[in-house]
Write a structure and sequence with these properties.
38% helix, single chain, L-fuculose-1-phosphate Aldolase, 196 residues, alpha+beta, globular
């Protein structure tokens, strides 16, 4: 495996862990597309301590022999790569986004920084949100128009030209949700009309 690619995936896994962007130590996944190949976190690997053997290489169009140990979200990652311009994807079980997704149909930023970056964050409500055919069908069209979306009760998917860009969108979505949560807990009104 390409040492530089492994190091990049390891670093962003560590960033996700250190920033508390996953509900548990082994949750979430990330991937990178290189031509007709993709590299994705192994199922059950600890996000904050990825080893080289925790990154699975497989074809974008079809499985290779090692794919059985890949993330359960591999089909979703493939579908996003096939239907968007994404070259990197991060899926994190972001606590504030997951919480708000259970009581909202979409997230509209109320803070200036959040509004500057994202006008809204769609929430996809499906019967089975973990690696299902339904998510493979419904999420990629949303990500054609948005940098990130939340699966209701599950977590945030973000994409970009590289892991840094995808990570940025993960952090932006989570900070937007955290601000909404804090304002609501301070008794503020977060349901006002958009200011932009």
């Amino acid at each position: 495996m390409d040492e530089e690619l492994y190091e990049e995936m390891r670093r962003y896994g560590e960033f996700l862990e250190n920033r508390g962007l996953n509900l548990s130590s082994h949750s979430g996944n990330l991937s990178v597309r290189r031509g007709d190949r993709m590299y994705i976190k192994r199922r059950g690997a600890m996000m904050g301590d990825l080893k080289e053997e925790d990154v699975v290489e497989t074809g974008l169009e079809e499985d290779d022999s090692g794919v059985i140990i890949a993330s359960t979200e591999i089909g979703v990652h493939r579908a996003i790569y096939k239907e968007t311009s994404a070259l990197a994807i991060i899926h994190a079980h972001t606590p504030y986004a997951v919480s708000l997704s259970l009581v909202r149909d979409e997230i509209v930023p109320i803070d200036d920084e959040g509004q500057y970056h994202l006008k809204k964050v769609p929430i996809l409500d499906v019967e089975d949100s973990i690696g299902s055919d339904e998510v493979e069908d419904l999420l990629p069209p949303i990500l054609q128009d948005y940098n990130a979306a939340i699966l209701k009760g599950h977590g945030t998917f973000a994409h970009g030209e590289n892991l840094e860009e995808a990570y940025n969108w993960i952090t932006v979505v989570e900070s937007i949700c955290k601000v909404i949560y804090m304002v609501e807990n301070l008794g503020g009104d977060t349901q006002k009309e958009e200011r932009w």
